[in-house]
What does this fold into?
Amino acid sequence: MSTPTPRPHQRAGVWPTLRAVLWSFVGVRRRQAYHDDAGSLNPLAVVLAGVFVGVVFVVFIVIVVQVVLA
Amino acid sequence: MAAVTHDQLQGHQHGQSGLMRWITTTNHKDIGTLYMFFSFFMFLSGGVMALTIRAELFQPGLQVVQPEFFNQLTTMHGLVMVFGAIMPAFVGFANWMIPLMIGASDMAFARMNNWSFWLLPPAAILLLGSFFVPGGAAAAGWTMYAPLSVQMGMGMDLAIFAIHIMGISSIMGAINIVVTVLNMRAPGMTMMKMPMFCWTWLITAYLLIAVMPVLAGAVTMILTDRHFGTSFFNAAGGGDPVMYQHIFWFFGHPEVYIMILPAFGIVSQIIPAFARKPLFGYASMVYAVAAIAILSFAVWAHHMFATGMPAAGQLFFMYATMLIAVPTGVKVFNWVATMWRGSLSFETPMLWAVGFIFVFTIGGFTGLICAIAPIDIQVQDTYYVVAHFHYVLVAGSLFALFAGAYYWLPKWTGHMPSEFLGKLHFWCSLVFFNITFFPMHFLGLAGMPRRIPDYALQFADFNALISIGAFGFGLSQLIFLVAVIKCIRGGERAAARSWEGAEGLEWTVPSPAPHHTFEEAPVLR
Ligand code: HEM
Ligand SMILES: [Cu+2]
It folds into this structure.
């Protein structure tokens, strides 16, 4: 079935991928931005970015904890 | 089952009939039905155990059961409810609804689907049968902490094997769901058009594949410690019992999301239907659910604050837990915003969904309180924790399951469920639920430990009240049984679109859904 909206087939770069993942950690995202993501993001890149940001999240809290305890 | 009778109307020929039909079925609707009947049976079994526990706790002192048996009851109640009732019920919903929602003709691996289900009855027999072996059933708590679990009798071995089998079943079910959602969508059903229930189940399925092997590993290590001379958790042999807790909760915390994300999905289908508005922040929801799935691997030790962690560890798990509550809170906001200025009506499914939001939110807040390390040192292993997880599991997962059942019963049976019985079931459940579990907060704060058959006199009044509430809640569930049986046998005929505001492909097929649907992929605008 034809999708009326033309699907941009160029792949999104690192920053849009990271931005989508970062928004997900807050749990808020504009519908239009989501549609753009869905058209352009590479699923594998999103998963990798997700795991990566997950690691960054952990490291970030570890640093905060070190600061609090110092 | 209505699906059966309807089949004959459709003039389909099936090789098997009677019992063999159900044993050999590869039809996603049949298998979904089997899952749901199985889980309801387990729900009643676990419920009988709970009521026996509450009968014992009605008064201080020992009246009904011996302490050893009491411990078996608390353990088996937890295992049966988590692995026998809640999880299979959600898999049943997934089987019935995901193919209908995405316009697929069946699940991707239909034979494996059959096997996923038929592994469960043997597991249930191992679990329930273990009450009758020498030494009785496992009694180390549903968490099966070492060293207790290394010491018990053969009931523990049976529980371990049951968990192995149920784990295999869950993993196969999850693989089936992932492949179905990714590969079997009708043309035009892009990921971003997928109903929320499919999204939440897709992510839940990944969680299952990731953590069920961890649980299997943990219980296998107990098994080898018990019988094959290893000392993973045995301090005398150089092992570490606390390591068991780390492994268990690395499974256990994602597991609580496995039990709540599909509930979020169901509620996200129902609220828009009865608010007659699209889900507010669909995109945010998808993102939040995905984030929760990743972050849920980084918070497990909030279950272990009392085991003696370094301050840095306590702070880490405390901060991480509080941050992960943010995407969860956003969802509650989204549901409320969906209802805001909608044309609301409160048929039975909507009542359950709204009740879910209200009571689940209380559970979320008490979770946050448990996550504050210094407070948790006080409330850990008290009734406060029991109150918390029943607010999220009973008022969360179970209420959402009831909401979903009333919502899709017309599609399953072809008849509208009785509004009177559904509403009676809801109000009785809501009132008795709160009578049962709200006072547990006070008991916990006052210091009453969990998992004990007897207690100090000052806790007597609240416990009596709780036991009365518990029997009320248990008996109220029989209303559901009656409502479902009545709905299967007759009642107002359901239209294809059984609820005025319901959206989605499942409402484009007749009610009851014929045995085979979407053999030709539907056309999406
Ligand atoms: C806002 C979200 C949540 C937070 C912050 C949270 C936090 C916690 C914490 C800190 C504990 C440990 C308490 C203790 O043992 O002292 C706990 C226990 C528990 N939580 Fe949650 N929780 C949340 C949501 C959920 C959900 C959604 C479920 C399941 C549907 C759940 C199920 C459980 C269970 C079963 C236990 C007790 C396990 C046991 O000891 O047997 N929680 N929660
Ligand atoms: Cu947890």
